[in-house]
Amino acid sequence: MINILTKHGYVYKGNPHAWWCVQSALLVTLTDCNEFHQRREAATNHARASIPTGAITIGSGGKYSTISAALQDTSSNIYYIYSGTYNEQVYINRANVKIYGQTNSDLDYNSNTVTITNNLSAAQAGSNDLSGTVRVAATGVSLYNLKPHSIANTYGKGAQAIALSVQAGTFGAYACKLTGYQDTLLANKGTQFYGRSYINGATDFIFGTQASIWITKSTIETVASGYITASGRDSDDANYYVIDNSTIKGTGSCYLGRPWREYARVIFQNSNLGSNIVAAGWKNWSDATPNTAHVYYGEYNNSGAGAWNSQRVSFATKMSSPISISTVLGSTSWVDSAYL
Description:
Layout lengths: L1 H6 L8 H30 L10 E3 L8 H5 L6 E4 L2 E4 L2 E3 L5 E4 L12 E5 L3 H4 L8 E3 L4 E4 L6 E3 L10 E3 L3 E5 L2 E3 L5 E3 L1 E7 L2 E11 L1 E7 L2 E13 L9 E4 L2 E4 L3 E4 L7 E5 L2 E2 L22 E5 L15 E3 L6 H5 L11
Parallel strand pairs: 1-2, 2-5, 3-6, 4-7, 5-8, 6-9, 7-10, 8-11, 9-12, 10-13, 11-14, 12-15, 13-15, 14-16, 15-17, 16-18, 17-19, 17-20, 18-21, 19-22, 21-23, 23-24
Family: Belongs to the pectinesterase family.
Pathway: Glycan metabolism; pectin degradation; 2-dehydro-3-deoxy-D-gluconate from pectin: step 1/5
Keywords: Aspartyl esterase, Cell wall biogenesis/degradation, Hydrolase, Secreted
């Protein structure tokens, strides 16, 4: 190493501390370079450079100007959205539809260029589902790279307003970004997978009653004090909400969840829980209706300032082993393995 440094004009004068500093600086620089090249390689290898074969195109230069109009064309189940902002509600009621958003890196929601936005509260629409910016009512639907604010409900504080409502079958969201405030994601029925995605909100912003969901390698961000999950599981069925290998961060003093119904079952595992998570971790629904007698709130192998501590509530469980994706979703043959 000294010979290499000398060759390039560096003079070693026998000071071991000075040499250690040079060596450390080189190692840091090499590490940074390696990380940079890895990120650049990932972005290059996973760029969606061409429109999927057979796709119906939407947006500037596309066949249709709106997503809703395009979905009326049933000549293909594959749709490609060009960069832009689409101010509309999208209703998907046909099985096996795949929608791809234009992106520079299909594994990174921050590289995407498509926005779907809507400003409608549940009170205005008549129900939570009807307020959804994107509503899924059929099995086998997959959404890719819908961002920034990806699927957004911009109604804001003061009312329930859904960004994404999923009501049927198998569903996958891949490198998507869901933004809202209260009740951002209505994961209500079926088996659902969210990979390398982003979800934000403040109050009960991941909620539903009869779905099993697996969220992995994703970011969940709180934008104010509140509760991340509100499981409405109301019987001893097979359903789970699982947040796996993800980052929980944000502002405010937040709980991992509270039980909307008496059999709420939620697990956080192998994740980094930020300082926004309060020491108690979990909260009852209310003092009058605690809903804690049959809940399962599990935590396994989490890290960070908000991870398990001696102040956790009595109805939380420190797990001795993780839960598997197959336990939660059953067969995963329908999941895009690039996002696992």
